[in-house]
Request: fold
Amino acid sequence: MLPILTPEQWQHWQEQGYLKIGGLVPLVYCARVKQFICAYQGIDLNDPATWYPTHEHWHGLMLQVYQQPDMEAIRREPAVKQLFAELYQPNR
Reply:
């Protein structure tokens, strides 16, 4: 299995603590999750006044909704699992 992370991405992760990596999951899952979050939170992407609602399941940057089918499908994607293994394996 070929690694997902390049040496430059690994270095960025180590120095900055975040990565943006595209193409790991089918875009249809991402679109459905975005649609779900907007509907669940009452967000209209065309109205910035709705972008930061208060909600009982909103904790910091996390929306505490884990059982949505498309979110689960993203978590089960082999490339996502591989990426997490690369980021958190002890002997990189």
Notes: The chain has a mean pLDDT of 89. The helical segments are 7-16, 27-41, 69-76, 78-88.
